[in-house]
Amino acid sequence: MELTVIGHWGAYPEKNEATSGYLIEHQGRKILLDCGSGVLSGLQNYVMLEDLDAVFITHLHADHIADMYSLEFATLILMQIGKRALPLDIYVYCQDLTKLDFCYPEYVNVHPIDLQRTVAIGELTITFAENVHDVPSCAVKVNSEDGKCLVYSGDTGYCQSIVEFSRGSDVLVLESSFYNIQKGLNNGHLTAGEAGEIAAIAQTGQLILTHLPHYGDHNQLVVEASSHYDRQIQLAYCGMKLTI
């Protein structure tokens, strides 16, 4: 299983970069976790849009969904000119799919994410868990048939759910929106120290800090996470690639 970080910024992208977007590739299958601002452009450096199998949207904040509607138009055009054969499957975690602005059901199949159901994409199985956030938000787990496991937190505050959901994962891609000094500022996001604590309790194989702030020294995030977690910690960056 291959992970490519398309975007890792919280709130808005720095120039020529992107907010949340993570490409997973395995046995010819290609899925995208979140599709934030700048992701659609960056994604095309790594995969042809007509080859994308599915997209999973963890919640409806713009930095996680901003490019989704442009991807719908891309799918429409690619199918009309014969480059893409099948509609794109889009899975969204929200309370009411009818309030979304998708316009072309013949080109995109929009599905609600059900926390109780597993989605199979080729040899990948995808499951979900509820987060703590100010809008409905879920974490995503991707398991391959060879026993590898990646967990992506989406946006979440500290909660037992994300600890249990991440337990035993090979890679945990975990939001780290705040420095420790900001603890309590927003209960829907994690500090770096909290991220490290979750990784330690869950005994994940390695930790990738993402959804990064636009200020401060990001190396301090690693220092703060490492006060709890003593395995490998990396800062996400646009274009980062990892084999799991």
TrEMBL record:
Keyword Signal belongs to the record: no
Its job: Counteracts the endogenous Pycsar antiviral defense system. Phosphodiesterase that enables metal-dependent hydrolysis of host cyclic nucleotide Pycsar defense signals such as cCMP and cUMP.
Domain of life: Bacteria
PANTHER family: METALLO-HYDROLASE YHFI-RELATED, ZINC PHOSPHODIESTERASE ELAC PROTEIN 1
Keywords: Hydrolase, Zinc
Claim: DNA-binding is one of the keywords in the record: no
Domain Metallo-beta-lactamase: 18-211
GO molecular function: 3'-tRNA processing endoribonuclease activity
One Pfam family linked to the record: Lactamase_B_2
Reactions catalysed, as given in the entry: 3',5'-cyclic UMP + H2O = UMP + H(+); 3',5'-cyclic CMP + H2O = CMP + H(+)
Protein name as catalogued: MBL fold metallo-hydrolase
Organism: Paenibacillus anaericanus
InterPro entries xrefs: Metallo-B-lactamas, RibonucZ/Hydroxyglut_hydro
